[in-house]
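quick one before i forget lol
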Amino acid sequence: MDWDKLRIFHAVAEAGSFTHAGAVLNLSQSAVSRQISALEESLNVALFHRHARGLILTEQGELLYRTAHEVFAKLAMAEAQLSESKDRPKGQLKVTATVALGANWLAPRMGEFLEIYPDVSVDLVLEDRELDLSMREADVAIRMAPPRQPELIQRHLLTVHMHVYASPAYIKKHGMPKTVDDLDNHKIVVYGEETRPPVPDVNWLLWLGAQKDRPRRPVLTVNNIYAILRAVQAGIGLAALPEFMVQEAGNLVRVLPELEGPRIDAYFVYPEELRRSKRIQVFRDFLLRKVAEGPL
């Protein structure tokens, strides 16, 4: 297969239209369409279903896309490794982390890292879903659970502590819970079930000490922990939040201080292929230094 046509096919499959792929490739819509037609003719199969709303991959197109995506991901990884300086780390480093940890703890520390390593360009992707490192959706990840894929290298980074918090306005209006049983009579904000939560047992506040025949029902569910923090600040209810988020917020009251939720271990994770990458080595060591400097 012609590599140029395969590259154009991959871009079209990613974009879902000839026009959008052309904008990415700096080619006209007609030029992209001609290349795809030529590739289909050489393979003697249809790769896309064409309709008014865009393009949909055929079964054969799906097979070719999965293979091409893996090939281009491996090539990108090889290019990054070849371009990296032997003496000083440089190049792009794509880092993914959960929204809460990334926004509240990681992002404020990136300025210092970039001053130390000015030749490294960091792309910080904050997602509560897990990006696929083997497919180069990111180079490294900070994950709130050990990785399930055996080809990934992991290093324990830190332990996150969860406590229960409310705003002063909420406490003034609804009173301070004295016991775990009192939570049955309070408004609780939890992580929604529509998406996979960023940490295990994130909604432990619903079942801790609750009666089996009277399960607690949340007043509000949100699929983003930062939004849960904002809801608590607004006095909507009380919620379990990571300690480091509340330290940054500084205006919440800890409820039932003797109560502590599950401890969550965060891991620094990256693919086996990037074991020798200097960018990853220095970034890992930088984060370990930041953790050692003080508690979250």
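fyi The mean pLDDT is 87.
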